[in-house]
Amino acid sequence: MQNLSKEYLVLFNAITDAEESLRRLRARLIDAQQKAEELYIAGHDAGPFSKDI
After folding, report:
1. Can you tell me the distance from the alpha carbon of 31 to that of 41, in angstroms, rounded to the nearest whole number?
2. What are the distances in angstroms from CA 42 to CA 9, 38, 39, 46, 52?
3. How far apart are CA 16 and CA 10, in angstroms?
4. DSSP state, residue 1
5. Is the pTM of this model over 0.70?
6. Which of 11, 16, 47, 49 has its CA 20 to 30 A from that of 26?
7. Are 10 and 17 in contact (CB under 8 A)?
8. pLDDT tens digits for 4-51?
9. Do residues 50 and 44 touch, judged by C-beta distance below 8 A?
């Protein structure tokens, strides 16, 4: 196998780290969206004391 240059390894590792960070951020955003949707639905199911009625 051919030896890889240091520059390539630095770039590859940075891209790999960025992809993992983006994966974690995406999961956090999805979780926040789901919680916000649950709160929204719960607010509309609150009955006669809901502020939207």
Report:
1. 15
2. 49, 6, 5, 6, 12
3. 10
4. -
5. no
6. 11
7. no
8. 899 999 999 999 999 999 999 999 999 999 999 999 999 987 666 656
9. yes
Q: Are 27 and 33 in contact (CB under 8 A)?
A: no
The CA-based dihedral angle spanning residues 8, 11, 17, 18, taken in that order and rounded to the nearest 10 degrees: -140
Domain positions in the chain: 1-42
Q: Whole-angstrom Cα distance, residue 36 to residue 43?
A: 10
